[in-house]
Amino acid sequence: MDALNATDHAGSTDAATTFRALPPEAPLRMPVQNLRAAPDRHGRPTFSRTEPGMIRLRRTLVIGSALALTAYGAWQMHLVLDANGVSILGVVMLILFIALFLWIALALTSAIAGFVSLLTRGGLGLGIDGAGPLPTLRTRVALLMPTYNESPHRVMAGLRAIHASLRETGRADDFDIFILSDTTNPDVWVEEEAAFLALREETGDSSRIFYRRRPKNTERKAGNVGEWVQRFGAAYPLMVTLDADSVMDGETLVRIAAAMEGNPEVGLIQTLPVIAGGTTLFARMQQFAGRVYGPLIAHGIAWWHGAASNYWGHNAIIRTAAFAEQAGLPHLPGRKPFGGHILSHDFVEAALMRRGGWAIHMVPALLGSYEESPPSLTDVAIRDRRWCQGNLQHYKVLPTRGLHWLSRLHMAMGIGSYVTSPLWLIFLLVGILISLQARFDKPEYFGDTKTLYPHWPQVDPVQAKFVFIGTMGVLLAPKLLAFAALLFDRRTMSGCGGAIRVAASIVIETLIGGLIAPIAMLIQTSGVISILSGQDSGWNAQRRDDGGVPFGEIVRGYWRFTAFGLILGTCAWIVSPALFLWMSPVLLGLALAIPLAAWTASRNAGLAMKRAGLLLVPEETSPPDVLKKAAAAMAAPKPDGPHEAIAALRADPVLLAAHRAMLPSPRRPGDAIDAERLVGVLKLTEAGTVAEAQRVLTPREKAAALCDATGVERAVSLPD
């Protein structure tokens, strides 16, 4: 049961008080959606009144301009490749060029839209005033913090900052905090419980801070949030989803909640999380790019996506009834990695809500939403492997009946973000083959037909250079637009170190990012290949600290990229020294894969950039108050005491009482039998000492046994 008698954690003189880890349940039905059936919009129209003006024209301009630019680029590339008529390799390369160029062309036209939006002070809407008086709320809001084997100290530091910021707004009574644990590590689980009790005691707000752990984390984060909706959703009209590294300012939370109150047809508002707190060179590059280029990109997509925007899974406010009504995710047919539950659930949840007639908006101009970056390329690769599988899964969702065409485009672009990596690799290899063909296949100037003039090859090296320069211009133009937009934002420019330092930082980020790009290309390509071969990504906790990656691990992980780069470079040199020079940026990045991965993961390298005034962001030069609170909470010493679960429960009677109170309901006859729980309890029964129990129990068995009242009693009664 969720509420049992336990000793009060605050040390009350009463003999016992009622301990409640959760509020009374308020169930809300969340039906699983049928992707093949027409959606039930409950009378809502497909077009939302919250759409910006002339939204169709906006979309036509962005997409039409990208198509026109791609057509022009394709024609120029055709002129480059048209040597002796049509060849198979030439056609393949032209098709690849069109697909890849369309990708960067759409990024450019969307960035131009973002530039216009930034200069006209757009990016809010929905009646949100980012600087006006704080509105009064009429609605209860739940802040949901799903966590999976994360550091409890880090999670609670963010929640402490959010809670303190909400108190300063005077609206804290409108928000309840839920820590939704899917943690499988028993030591981390018990540490979470202790941290939850400490958070309640420190804030003195035991009636609005709650904790729940699922013994079985079915369907991962989507299942975690879905279970909360079905148990408690009816009591909370609005919910804010967070990540373990999320921090949100109290005023921002109040303003987006008020916007939801004022726009009852809106189902979700996504904020723009600003990356902050990075110390390694890689993390500082990510947060600089996110802070300088991110607003341009986000304003652009908000400008033409309108009420059919997207959801990034965190730092967003959701209408609970809309989510329950439309976002019940089905299992996809087939086996893993493409079948089963949906990994990248956020895109699909937004698409299904929009399909159901709910508006989905992004408000990139509203500050006060923060997250962290993975500290190294290695950590990004681990996360990216899971994201890759989740996005490729979406090909099974694309045919869903009744989806808005932009929702299909979101998912198609998600798939494309990973498919483009192997396409770039194939493009490079085809380029080598064409150069090889040109070297050994001599053209016939007159052919079989008698003509007065020879048929000269039309490959013009000057034309090829123009295409290359034009392509790089399209690729780099969004960064130049972001810098130009920053010139009109003196406050942000000053926070980034001034115009000269920002320009230097953009050059550094572009150069290092360019060297990393081919490594990332191969990482994503290997991910796509492994998924297509049937390998599942699993679910691993993300490393968020700035501890360096051991050099031996880097060598083991990156030597293949170095070897591939050396082989590719050798082939290019044999074919043509000019081809080798043309490919040198790619070859150099691959050849330096090991030192690049080690250097960018270095905290010392990142801090050296900071001391030089490079890669700065306003959140570190003039930190917002909520980030100061989070940093102070993070810097606070961790509580003393054992970190192993059984030892911690034995050492703290208050924690033990709370743990007992939060145990799930006992198994009833007919319920499924948990073999790990039976084995774990049996091992505890047969163990002669605590040390023996700790030695013989596997982590899964220990977690299962500590979910059982008998197992807990046996664990705490064992002799030392």
UniProtKB/TrEMBL annotation:
Tell me the InterPro entries matching this sequence: Glucans_biosynth_gluTrFase_H (IPR023725), Glyco_trans_2-like (IPR001173), Glycosyltr_2/OpgH_subfam (IPR050321), Nucleotide-diphossugar_trans (IPR029044)
Q: Which SUPFAM superfamilies match?
A: Nucleotide-diphospho-sugar transferases
Per the UniProt record, which residue ranges are transmembrane? 57-75, 87-116, 415-436, 466-488, 500-523, 579-601
Q: In which pathway does it act?
A: Glycan metabolism; osmoregulated periplasmic glucan (OPG) biosynthesis
Q: Which UniProt keywords apply?
A: Cell inner membrane, Cell membrane, Glycosyltransferase, Membrane, Transferase, Transmembrane, Transmembrane helix
Q: Which E.C. number(s) belong to this protein? A: 2.4.1.-
State the top-level EC class: transferase
Subcellular location per the Swiss-Prot or TrEMBL entry: Cell inner membrane; Cell membrane
Short name of one Pfam family = Glyco_trans_2_3
**Annotated family:** Belongs to the glycosyltransferase 2 family. OpgH subfamily.
According to UniProt, the name of this protein is Glucans biosynthesis glucosyltransferase H
**What's the gene?**
opgH
